[in-house]
Amino acid sequence: MNRKSKHRRANIIPTRFKDAFITSTIGHRQEITSEYGYRDNIYYSLIDAILIEMRDRFSPSNIALLSSLSSISPQNKNFLNYDLLLPLSSHINCDRNYLFNEIQVLKPMLDNKNLSSISELYHDLMPLQQAFPNMMLMIKAALTIPVSSSTCERVFSKMKLIKTRIRTTMADERLSDLCILAIERDFQMDYEQVIDQFSISHNNSRIMLR
């Protein structure tokens, strides 16, 4: 810690420029020579940056939103707690009054069902989505809200590969469809069903695909 950093090599002016007037700029470099210097300039700065980032990521509003997401899970002890669901309902512009009425009807219906995940809850309520539109909207939000920035980073990395110079005039809708196909690779697609659906939708197509 007490060892001094290596000095920079001195600049020597050539002899032919001895009588000339030369202006030059040199970079300012602060040398850290002691334990106190490392503590003040590196350690404290790093701790401050970490604390600021944690305050931004785990602010009271974000914590309340995370609690709302967890309240939709059937395994949570606060499952369908109306007060905890309010931050998420405000975030997605969901009607609070209708949501309250839907929760009062939905809770007794789910008491005897052993659901283990939000996905199972979604599939269980799918036939009743017209009766519980606001609750279905909340469940969809809980299933699709990304929990980290890795999803966004993966999308942008794939977008660079998909939208090449040849595809600069591609519309946003087609770009979105191609990105989904490239990112969600675990989605099993039945190509025969796709071809049949395309053939039914385009009766005037010149090539019969089936």
From TrEMBL:
Residues in HAT C-terminal dimerisation domain copies: 129-186
Protein name (database record): HAT C-terminal dimerisation domain-containing protein
InterPro entries found in the cross-reference section: HATC_C_dom, IFN-induced_PKR_regulator, RNaseH-like_sf
Taxonomy, superkingdom: Eukaryota
Organism this protein belongs to: Rotaria socialis
Gene Ontology MF: a single term: protein dimerization activity
